[in-house]
Design goal:
Strand content: 5-15%
Protein name: Sigma-54-dependent Fis family transcriptional regulator
Shape: globular
Number of strands: 21
Number of helices: 27
Keywords: ATP-binding, DNA-binding, Nucleotide-binding, Transcription, Transcription regulation
GO molecular function: ATP binding; sequence-specific DNA binding
Bound molecules: adenosine-5'-triphosphate
Organism: Parazoarcus communis SWub3 = DSM 12120
Structural class: alpha/beta
Domain Sigma-54 factor interaction: 334-562
Length: 644
């Protein structure tokens, strides 16, 4: 039963989402997103969603090291905020609360409201809220009472600040929330300042931990405060080259000279940023904590006071030098300007030389093998073999001998000298196990033993052979689900997932243009063609939702190059499926475009009516993405009844 205040709120949300919002208003823009992009219905308030334990574990595993650092900051912040009724949430980049500090006395109310461990505060799930909207805006935000989209949340007040990793990737959100609060929005001003300040402190603590083997230059505009609150931090190596920047540095500093790459500081010498040059910085380092604190000035005329912290551990033992390279070239080539891919690449570049196995998740055709290969090529193992095995493609009866090898005379008909298995062949290099979820259970047990004991026992052999094995495993299936069904060993899962990388589906990537260009160049070179895409074909490629991901894009380009006139690829050269995703089967006569348009419009209209104008449900029914539904609605002038 809805309270009058909730009903009034729903009417308000409906009115704004129908008329649209000013781009500068993050709350109303979020309401519009909730209705138009996520298909959320303000008339159906929904309780908080708490993810299951196993899923929460996975989210925590992703940022385990960071969680330890963040906890200290959270405890300090909680001490200051608990007395005035606030609780604290730390969420990952997906909006899942991976840590929480609150008062046990209100545990029931807090859990019901979603102020709890495991709560999903993404905008897609919870509507406008401090965490979810902060993830979209990447900036601190207060979402107070009726700023929330969902009427169940309108008694809450929430303040959130984003957290970035030392390479600028988005890590998650720090949030302070209260079950009750005074009605003026201004009452939250201080809470927002506090959460923003602590988010910065947590980020900086993480930065110092991450770059503990590097020199760190801390800068502040107040002479006496630099040691305690250096707003700007730059990590640099013994040659004075910048290897890391905190958020403050990324906001405030630019290289002295313009030119290519002027937007990034990583990889540049410090003398490219400060007029006084490297000598002055080494002088500051030598002065240590003494009062001799030279000022450094930037190209824009700002003056900062600096202090330099020496490396606290010896570099190379922690991480071989290439692992610190902000982006290894083989990895960098995988993507253009897509935030999800850029984050993945920065995570991957930090992993290349670490002694961990990596699990890659992604839909079929997203490039899991390509990523595994790039990881290998970027590592110090690159001169050793990269061995790829598709566990789903090799018949079960052969996987064992293929992987583990066999000795002479083990099989009648086998090679008389025996065979080194693929595990041995990858010794010192990388073993890529694709579709690991399809590996039979008894072989999972043997693989686990190889990983634990670092030796392999070929079939028929008496003595094990030592191997230096680094595994990158991939799966498009949910391994946690397979574990729950008893089809995948949990202990093997934990051995394999030293780190998990999620490859986004192509429809979510914003760098499709880059991929189209790269793949077209690669395919053209192979076919010795110089054909270019015309505008309509290019637009069709950009707007398609690519269920088969990068592989399908590659195949489509190959097809188009083969059938085009040799100079221009136009829309007719693209395979029919790009034009017919929305049509009912059987496919109508392709020579009748008017009939096809008419069919498309009526199919869409019927589905919209059937699904009561819920765009998400329509997209699911027709097997297309929501953006395509909106595009088609616009094209055919279909307007929801309440907006007509
Ligand atoms: N980033 C990329 N740049 C260029 N080509 C790519 C990229 N990602 C994938 N591809 C191409 O897409 C195709 C599929 O890639 P890949 O085999 O790595 O996908 P996958 O996710 O391992 O697929 P599956 O799940 O079917 O094993 C390949 O032809 C590959 O060359």
């Amino acid at each position: 039963m809805l309270a009058p205040s909730q009903r009034e709120h729903i009417d308000n949300v409906l009115a704004v989402s129908q008329t649209g919002a000013a781009a500068s208003d993050p709350i109303h823009s979020s309401w519009v997103r909730c209705v138009r992009d996520y298909g959320l219905d303000p008339c159906r308030p929904t309780r908080a969603h708490i993810v299951e334990h196993a899923q929460l574990r996975e989210h925590k595993d992703q940022i385990e090291e960071f969680l330890g650092v963040a906890r200290t900051g959270m405890e300090q912040l909680y001490k200051r905020m608990a007395g005035i009724g606030y609780v604290l949430l730390l969420t990952d980049a997906h909006g899942i609360a991976v840590d929480f500090i609150g008062n046990d006395a209100w545990a029931r109310e807090l859990k019901q409201s979603g102020l709890y461990l495991g709560a999903d505060w993404s905008e897609v799930r919870a509507g406008t809220c401090a965490v979810g909207t902060c993830i979209v805006e990447k900036a601190p935000i207060t979402v107070h009472h009726t700023d929330h989209f969902d009427a169940t949340h309108i008694s809450l007040t929430c303040n959130a600040a984003p957290l970035f990793d030392p390479t600028g990737g988005f890590l998650g959100v720090l949030d302070v929330s209260a079950l009750t609060s005074p009605s003026p929005r201004e009452s939250q001003h201080l809470a927002l300042q506090m959460v923003t300040m602590y988010a910065q402190m947590v980020e900086d603590a993480n930065f110092l931990r991450y770059f503990r083997d590097r020199w760190v230059l801390r800068l502040g505009s107040a002479w006496s405060m630099v040691d305690v609150a250096g707003e700007i931090m730059l990590a640099f190596d013994g040659d004075g080259v910048i290897v890391g920047t905190n958020s403050g540095a990324r906001r405030a500093l630019r290289p002295l000279r313009n030119g290519p790459g002027a937007d990034t500081l990583i990889g540049r010498p410090l003398s490219d940023v400060f007029r006084e040059g490297m000598d002055a910085i080494w002088r500051i380092a030598r002065a240590g904590a003494s009062a001799d604190r030279s000022a450094l000035s930037t190209g824009s005329g700002e003056v900062y006071f600096g202090t330099v912290q020496a490396p606290r551990v010896t570099p190379q033992r922690i991480m071989p030098s290439t692992a610190d390279t902000p982006c290894a070239p083989a990895l960098e080539r995988l993507a253009g300007d897509d935030p999800q891919m850029q984050r993945l690449i920065s995570q991957a570049s930090r992993l290349v030389n670490r002694p961990v196995n990596i699990l890659v998740h992604g839909e079929t055709g997203t490039g899991k093998e390509v990523l595994a290969k790039a990881l290998h090529e970027s590592s110090s193992r690159s001169s050793k073999p990269f061995v790829a095995v598709n566990c789903a493609a090799i018949p079960e009866s052969l996987i064992e001998s293929e992987l583990f090898g066999y000795t002479a005379g083990t099989f009648t008909g086998g090679r008389s000298k025996g065979m080194r298995g693929l595990i041995q062949q990858s010794d010192g290099g990388t073993l890529f196990l694709d579709e690991i979820g399809d590996m039979p259970l008894h072989l999972q047990t043997r693989l686990l033993r190889v990983l634990a004991e670092r030796e392999v026992l070929p079939l028929g052999a008496e003595k094990p052979v030592p191997v230096r094995l680094t595994v990158v495993a991939a799966s498009h299936r949910d391994l946690r689900k397979l574990i729950a069904e008893g089809r995948f060993r949990e202990d093997l899962y934990y051995r394999l997932c030293g780190a998990i990388l999620y490859l986004p589906p192509l429809r979510e990537r914003l760098d499709r243009d880059y991929l189209i260009e790269r793949l077209l160049a690669a395919e053209s070179a192979e076919l010795d063609s110089r054909a270019r895409l015309d505008q309509a074909a290019h637009a069709a490629l950009l707007s398609y939702d690519w269920p088969g991901n990068v592989r399908q894009l590659r195949n489509v380009l190959r097809f188009a190059l083969a059938v085009c006139d040799g100079t221009t690829i136009n829309i007719e050269d693209l395979p029919a499926e790009l034009m017919t995703r929305i049509e009912p089967s059987p496919v109508p006569d392709a020579s009748a475009p008017i009939a096809r348009t008419h069919d498309e419009a009526s199919v869409l209209q019927a589905a919209l009516r059937r699904q009561r104008w819920n765009v998400t449900a329509v997209a699911a029914e027709l097997g297309i993405c929501r953006a395509t539904v909106y595009r088609q609605m616009k094209r055919y002038g279909i307007v929801p009844p309440n907006q007509a």
